[in-house]
Write a structure and sequence with these properties.
The chain has 334 residues and is an alpha/beta fold. The protein contains 15 helices and eleven strands. It has two domains: 184 residues, 3-Layer(aba) Sandwich (Rossmann fold); 105 residues, Magnesium chelatase subunit I, C-Terminal domain (Helicase, Ruva Protein, domain 3). It is 47% helix and 15% strand.
């Protein structure tokens, strides 16, 4: 993309799509199925957001991130979150050592968070104190230790996992930290056909075989291109209305929100919707954001930022069911 400024819009979109397809093609060597998960993870990486993956063990969450590190040619780091993990085990700490003259000096030893692609495995198993160490780095891409700030090289991306069926000994993520994730993605159990392919693949090798196809600089160029995709005011207003309609306390909120929602999404949801929609538009071969981009991304953007109440639970409704209702009622209002 070195001459991207001299290219017309059609060529820019075509080049963007080609790069994404190359990434998907390589990932398919290591990950069976999960097309929606892969699409949304790529969207988040290009958009500069973080992703929370929820799924039972063995569905390929860690393998996907390791393979992404290979395909995107990015330094990869894995942090296994446990109850005894300390904040300094994540961010790093100051250590005292001797210099060449034998004098004691203080230097900063970087923690595993200093990578481009970070897997925070079972993030809800760490204590709130350790979880809080992730807040600054996920939002501002820097770490502060002893009043000294250290920037993390771009692109920077956190993919965290949590297990929905092992809740004993876990510490639910606070709303402030959940809000740092652009997407929450649900990794479903594979179909029988996919499970057969997984078994056959892992009989050959447990190692990832994907090859690098793009690098960090190209990701930043793709991000820059996506930021320039135009969005008409009507689309922005629709996204804003969608987020506002998740708040049951607002007078203009739809009936489904007032009946089923305990609290709504933050302003970051509207920002995330538009930012991610620009990337999705390019992936779909368009140089403009459409309503379908907002509708498709509403689920991963909103499902962890809003909470349904006991009425919804009693009626056996999930958060995605309520989001679908709010989308329909928002469209009627427009």
């Amino acid at each position: 993309m070195s001459n991207v400024e001299n290219m017309n819009e059609l060529d820019k979109v075509q080049m963007f799509s080609q790069k994404v397809e190359r990434v998907k093609s390589e990932l398919a060597k290591d990950v069976v199925g999960q097309a929606d998960i892969i699409n949304n993870v790529i969207i988040a990486i290009v958009a500069g957001g973080n992703v929370l993956l929820e799924g039972i063990p063995g569905v390929g969450k860690t393998r996907l991130v390791r393979s992404l590190g290979r395909v995107l040619s990015l330094p990869f780091s894995r942090i296994q979150f446990t109850p005894d993990l300390m904040p300094s085990d994540v961010t790093g700490t100051n250590i005292v050592e001797k210099d060449e003259n034998g004098r004691l000096v203080t230097s900063f030893k970087k923690g595993p968070i200093f990578a481009n692609l970070v897997l925070a495995d079972e993030i809800n198993r760490a204590t709130p104190k350790t979880q809080s160490a992730m807040l600054e780095v996920m939002q501002e891409h820097k770490v502060t230790v002893s009043n000294q700030s250290y920037k993390i090289e771009e692109p920077f991306f956190v993919l965290a996992t949590e297990n929905p069926i092992e809740q004993d000994g876990t510490y639910p993520l606070p709303e402030a930290q959940m809000d740092r994730f652009m997407f929450k993605l649900m990794v479903n159990f594979p179909s029988d056909e996919e499970l057969v392919s997984i078994v056959k693949m892992t009989q050959i090798t447990m190692q990832e075989t994907a090859e690098p196809v793009i690098n960090g600089e190209e990701i930043l160029e793709m991000r820059s291109l996506a930021s320039k995709v135009p969005v008409v005011d009507e689309i922005i207003l629709y996204a804003v209305n969608l987020v506002s309609n998740t708040h049951p306390e607002l007078q203009a909120s739809p009936a489904s929100s007032k009946k089923y929602v305990k609290y709504g999404a933050s302003p970051r949801a509207a920002q995330g919707l538009i930012t991610a929609a620009k990337v999705r538009a390019l992936m779909c071969g368009r140089y403009n954001v459409a309503y379908e981009d907002i509708d498709a991304l509403a689920y991963p953007v909103l499902r962890h930022r809003m909470k349904i109440n006991y009425t919804a639970i009693n009626e056996k409704l999930g958060v995605d069911d309520v989001i679908s209702m709010i989308i329909k009622e928002t469209k009627k209002g427009n």
